[in-house]
Amino acid sequence: MSYILNFIRKQQCDLNLLISSHERKFLLDNMLKSKKEELDALNKSKELLTHNIHTIIDNNLSKIVNSIQTQESCENLSQLSTQLATTEQRMQATSICYTHMLSKKDLANIEMQSVIEDIIAHIETLYSQEECRTDIHKDIDATLAINDAVMASTAISEFLMDSFKNACEHNIPLRVSISLHNSKTSYKLKIKEFSKEEQALATTPLQKLKEKLQQLRLGGKKLVQQ
C-alpha cells in the first residue's frame, strides 16, 4: 500500500513538473513573441525615419545643385551665396532633430521638449554673431510617435529659421511662442510670432506649416507618414 501511495505521489510530482515546465514554455514563447513584435515595430519606425532623412537630404541637395547650375546666369552672386548658406543651415537644423530621434529606443513615445530645445539651440548658434535680440517661450509637454514627431519638429525648424533670418536681416527683436501638447486624438501645435507692440502677428497651425514644408523643401518628394 505504501509503495502504491509513493508511486502515486511520484507520478503527481512528475505531472506537476511537466505542467510547470509547459507553463514556463508558454510564458517564454509569449515573451519572445512580444519582444519580436517590439523589434519589428522599432525596425519599421527606423526604416520610416531613415527614408525621411534621405528624402529631405535629397531635396536639399537638389536645390544646391540647381543653384550651382544657374550660377553662370545669375547676376547677383551674393544672393546666390546667401541662398546656398540658408539651404545648408536648414539641412543642419533638420539633422539635429533626426540625430536626436535616432538615439531613442522608443520611437513610439518621443519627448518633444528635448528635441525642440536642441533645434532651438542649434539655430541660435547659427545667428550668434548677429546683433538681434530673441525671446523664445516654450510650452511643450507632448510625447509623439515618430511620424508626428518628424512633421512637428521639421515644421518648427522651418518656422524658426525664417523668423531668425528675418529678425537679423532687419535688426528687429524676435519674440516667438511655441506650444505643443497632446490632444485626445492627436496633438496640437501652435506657433506665434510677436511684434514690438507684443501683438501676435500670426498663429500658425500645423496644416499651414505642412503646406509651407511642401512649398519650401519637399518638391516632388514627400515625407512618408504611417
What's this model, at a glance?
65% of the residues lie in helices and 15% in strands.
N-to-C series of helices and strands = HHEHEEHEEEH
Strand order of the largest sheet: 2-4-5-6
Rounded to the nearest angstrom, the radius of gyration is: 27 Å
Q: Please mark out the parts with pLDDT under 50 across 5 or more consecutive residues, or reply none.
A: 196-206, 213-226
Give an overview of the whole structure:
Helices cover 65% and strands 15% of the residues. The chain is elongated, with a radius of gyration of 27 Å. It has one domain (31-218). The chain is α+β, with helices and mostly antiparallel strands and 226 residues long. 19% of the residues are buried. It starts with a helix and ends in an 8-residue tail after the last helix. It has helices at residues 2-69, 77-102, 112-126, 146-169, 206-218, and strands at 110-111, 134-140, 143-144, 174-182, 187-194, 200-204. A hairpin with a 4-residue loop joins β4 (174-182) and β5. The longest helix has 68 residues, at 2-69. The strands form two sheets. Strands 2-4-5-6 form a four-stranded mixed sheet. It has a two-stranded antiparallel sheet with strand order 1-3.
Topology:
Layout: H1 2-69, H2 77-102, E1 110-111, H3 112-126, E2 134-140, E3 143-144, H4 146-169, E4 174-182, E5 187-194, E6 200-204, H5 206-218
Parallel strand pairs: 2-4
Antiparallel strand pairs: 1-3, 4-5, 5-6
Which features does this protein show?
65% helix, 226 residues, elongated, two-stranded antiparallel sheet, 4-stranded mixed sheet, alpha+beta, 5 helices
